[in-house]
UniProtKB/TrEMBL annotation:
Entry protein name: Bifunctional uridylyltransferase/uridylyl-removing enzyme
All residue ranges annotated as the ACT domain in the record: 723-805, 834-916
The HD domain, residue ranges: 483-605
PANTHER family, per database record: BIFUNCTIONAL URIDYLYLTRANSFERASE/URIDYLYL-REMOVING ENZYME, BIFUNCTIONAL URIDYLYLTRANSFERASE_URIDYLYL-REMOVING ENZYME
Keyword Hydrolase in annotation: yes
Cofactor(s) the protein needs: Mg(2+)
GN (gene name): glnD
Family affiliation: Belongs to the GlnD family.
Activity regulation as described: Uridylyltransferase (UTase) activity is inhibited by glutamine, while glutamine activates uridylyl-removing (UR) activity.
Source species: Microvirga lupini
Function (record text): Modifies, by uridylylation and deuridylylation, the PII regulatory proteins (GlnB and homologs), in response to the nitrogen status of the cell that GlnD senses through the glutamine level. Under low glutamine levels, catalyzes the conversion of the PII proteins and UTP to PII-UMP and PPi, while under higher glutamine levels, GlnD hydrolyzes PII-UMP to PII and UMP (deuridylylation). Thus, controls uridylylation state and activity of the PII proteins, and plays an important role in the regulation of nitrogen metabolism.
Key words of the record: Hydrolase, Magnesium, Multifunctional enzyme, Nucleotidyltransferase, Repeat, Transferase
GO MF, any single term: phosphoric diester hydrolase activity
Pfam families: ACT (PF01842), GlnD_UR_UTase (PF08335), HD (PF01966), NTP_transf_2 (PF01909)
Catalytic activity entry: [protein-PII]-uridylyl-L-tyrosine + H2O = [protein-PII]-L-tyrosine + UMP + H(+); [protein-PII]-L-tyrosine + UTP = [protein-PII]-uridylyl-L-tyrosine + diphosphate
Amino acid sequence: MPSLKPQTILQSLGNQKIRDAAELRAGLVPLLRTFLDEGMAEAEAKLLETQDGLVCARSLCEQMDRLVHIVHEAIVRHLYPSANPSAGERLAVVATGGYGRGTLAPGSDVDLLFLLPYKQTAWSESVVEAMLYVLWDLKLKVGHATRSVEECLREAGADMTIRTSLLEARFLFGDPELFDDLARRFDKEIIATSAPAFVDAKLKERDARVAKAGASRYLVEPNVKDGKGGLRDLNTLFWIAKYVYRVKEPEELVAAGLFTKDEFNLFARCEEFLWRVRCHMHFATGRAEERLTFDLQRVLAERIGFAPRAGLSAVERFMKAYFLIAKDVGDLTAIVCAELEARQTKRRPMLDRMFGRFRRRRGGALLGEGFIIDNNRLNVENEEAFERDPVNLIRLFWLADRRNLAIHPDAKRLATRSLKLIGPSLRNDAEANKLFLEIITSKNAPEVVLRQMNEAGVLGRFVPDFGRIVAMMQFNMYHHYTVDEHLVRSVGVLTEIEAGHLGGEHPLANRIFPTIRNRRALYVAVFLHDIAKGRPEDHSTAGAVIARKLGPRFGLSDAETDTVAWLVEHHLLMSNTAQSRDLSDPATIKSFAEVVQTMERLKLLLVLTIADIKAVGPGTWTGWKGQLLRNLYQETEVFLGGGAVDLARSERVRLAQEQLRAELPDWPDEEFDAYASRHTPGYWMKTDETRRAKQARLLRESEKGGRTVTTAYETDQFRDVTELTILSPDHPRLLAIITGACAASGGNIVDAQIFTTTDGMALDTIVLSRAFDRDEDELRRAERVAKAIERALKGEVRIADLVDGKRPSKERSRAFHVPPEVTIDNSLSNRQTVIEVSGLDRPGLLYDLTTALGKLNLNIASAHIVTFGEKAVDVFYVTDLTGTKITHAGRQATIRRALLDVFKGEETEAGLRRSA
């Protein structure tokens, strides 16, 4: 218990002679600070012990009530006593808004209304001002208003925010008659006459708030207060219910007929959990933090007591619990909206709410099988619709898709209450699986329907393997959504591609989709590709096993099932190959093609890969990734067709030189021949026709101008990248200098091609991801990067200092641990050793890696940079100084150690955090 009690504080002041407000604050504030700190510490200790968020929030509110009362008592006793107050010297102190609800988080605002009879007097103004100064000295965030009853009603009539604040007004102390007068008149003059307008305003306000905080309730860094499925949604539900049903406490909503007892218990469970999370967040950060960021998720999982289990880490189990609560909040929102709609059409009291609603709506258009069209939405004819025929639990969603009808919340609610009907019998029912397959493969709106099935709980019960990944988050910065939401969104992207809506963004996929023969297999594979996430084994391999089990159940043929299983097992192959391998190396295409084997699989894998990447989250898909996938597809298409890839190396070089000669008709033969001889065969085979022509002109102009260091840059909106070309005398640390200059000037490298001419000049192409939408802005940035590179290559700046200046001065505690790995492989390329390095990304990492490779006297032929959120995967094609592969085991071990040392500091830091 706190050592300081309200009476003790007031008695302490009573022994002092206080002459003015400043003296009072000097004596009062330190005592109140101690009172607050002790109360906070007690509330936090109790929260950690009981894990009851509402108890914590209410105890903090009660403490604030006592504190505000102490402040008022001290001021009227020592500064502004009023033994015989006049009619104008009456004052009621009222809690409003969140404080009025009787719950506070440690960092919550304290909203106060100083209620007057008609106008402010000198006495009331002095008391209010003195109170506020004390509260401000305590560093409390105080929202306050001083109004008469008449002013409150007038303001509430014109401002929905004030109206909402007054809806939860709670009397603290002072003149109770003033508060009673306000409450009575507010109910009679405002609430009784404006329910429809209030409901409409609150729902619109919710939509705007959710859009700002993040439209999906499955965002992996949710806003606990304002996000979809958060505390504000519950607040909004109660505001609306309180306004429409005229209740005072949430418990009264059962008697009012809005919730069943079970639904109210769910409301209470959601409220407690969200308050628990919010209070822990405020205590853990020492501020009013509302966003559940990755670093906080780990802290809260430990504070709340989650432990690893069933293949999930503690933080993943905590976040799964959070997202299931957010889903429940969504269900409660649908219930309230449905009931509000029912009130608008209700003509007489109903003995039984659910029975009355269904009976009233029998007049809708009958669809058969127990379904009706109710106010342009699909509803069930009566409560027995699912009990009579459990297949209707699937047919409900099939009809919604087939008829393009929204599902009435009542029907969805009844489906959720009927989940016990979904067992082995229904899961193996041929008709139910036929309908479900038609939902997945629909050309209408499978994403919408699957999401509704998921929210109703039907999808996870009908496909238990899907149920395992419902609300499962992946604790990384790459995936923006939970696994189930990602899969549903993937199906939506696939539907858009098939409909031709993304032709401008995905021209190749748009062109080949009509030629795909295994359409059903593709849709099922997209729906299942991450179905085994969260299991100890590799999710691609485990997913293929699940696909082989579900394919026949869904009604797929053996051949379709084999295709689905193959796609699930290899769904990452095309993305990984395109982004982290040298696509100009014939060995890359050969090894990829040997896995794919057929053109049909190549088409299917391309489209699945696009849907998968685009459904990861906003900004994950880029035009550069699209170009890489198209390049891989086209090279593999040629290989599978036995075409130009099999041409002799010398013949391909000759064709490339002939193409360039045609592009440079103004060059004398002698000059062109001299230029062509400067490039190695690798250059002619790896660069495209357009780039070769531009680089030829760049080298010619550079020589005429006598420049040894030259840069050029251009943007490519379709590929969403900017290309930098650098011409410079070659040396082992060249790429390190270039990557360091890019890092220092804010350039994010996604690819690099490095060539050396026969006369010792390096001709490097660096591909940067775009930072600006407008070309003029992007070109200005490219110019800054190019100048930084030129200055570094000319020795005008020390590159290490530039990079160090960009590193955080003090490494923040990282939420993620990515064990570094180095793989050295000589089978992936015919001419180079492939080194793949993965680990925790950071500013300057690529510079550190290329510096280490330079010190090892390795020539880098190409570099391919991929970032998956916090994880960087950098691949280098290298040779030794004699141009041969690195085959000696000792040399490979030295390379591996040097590259792992780049991560050593962070590994030590991560180890200290884990041991702590």
